[in-house]
Design goal:
mainly alpha; two-stranded antiparallel sheet; 10 helices; 3% strand; single chain; binds iron/sulfur cluster; two-stranded antiparallel ribbon
Length: 233
């Protein structure tokens, strides 16, 4: 039987408590504003927690993260997100922070991407290194509202990321800050657990397929909040 990892257990417990708290508030306020409050709160927790682990690691003499603006190898593959994150991005795209031209641009890119990957397995997508529709000039176009799994991605060395991008077939060996990746994964798990607890649809969906569906469905947010549909494709 594998030995339990106390650090991982602590991350799991802290993320579970965080999602429980924010989803309990959301359950009392199932509105678009409630979605934004819950996801923004969980994102803020993720960012502070990840920054803490990075600082702790550096203080112990560990290497710095190789991730930086303009390095986007990991944005060329499938991304999955929870229904609440989907709604958060839909609300962001509809908000005054995004111009009409930008909204049209993102909508077109998401639709094109969904058509490109429709029918492909996750492995098939990885093999083609298809760029995320929000990737523009090697930067994330929705950085402030990017999914939790994107926040967890990291590497101490960009060389394997670069090699995997050039040829996705041979497996690469990555060194990364496990805690950062775990925070993203545990928060996703926590959101799904709490959605289920509150009787809401609890499946993760592919970013392009799910957003394409959400954007072409009238009143996606209102319908999902009323319990209509899984919001995951
Ligand atoms: S949402 Fe942003 S960070 Fe995530 S894969 Fe797409 S471009 Fe990269």
């Amino acid at each position: 039987m594998p030995t339990p990892n106390p650090a991982a257990q602590r991350i799991f417990a802290d993320c579970a408590a965080t999602t429980q708290e924010f989803l309990a508030t959301f359950a009392e306020d199932r509105t678009p504003a409630g979605v934004v409050r819950a996801v923004a709160g969980i994102h803020a927790y993720a960012d502070v927690s990840i920054a803490g682990f990075q600082a702790e690691y550096r203080a112990q003499g560990g290497p710095a993260s190789a991730c930086q603006a303009g390095c986007a190898y990991c944005c060329h593959g499938p991304v999955h997100l929870t229904p609440l994150e989907t709604l958060h991005i839909v609300l962001h795209l509809a908000s005054p922070a995004v111009s009409v031209d930008e909204r049209t641009h993102w909508g077109e890119r998401i639709g094109q991407q969904a058509a490109r990957i429709d029918g492909l397995t996750v492995q098939g997508q990885i093999g083609r290194t298809i760029a995320c529709p929000f990737l523009l000039d090697d930067c994330c176009g929705i950085y402030a509202v990017r999914p939790l799994l994107c926040r967890g991605r990291n590497a101490f060395d960009a060389a394997p990321c670069r090699a995997g991008f050039a040829d996705p077939t041979p497996p690469q060996s990555f060194t990364l800050l496990q805690e950062q990746m775990l925070v993203g994964q545990c928060l996703v798990l926590g959101i799904l657990t709490e959605l289920k607890r509150h009787g809401l649809p609890d499946s993760c969906g592919d970013l392009s397929l799910t957003l394409a569906h959400a954007l072409r469905t009238p009143d996606t947010v209102g319908r999902w909040l009323a319990g209509d549909g899984p919001l995951a494709w």
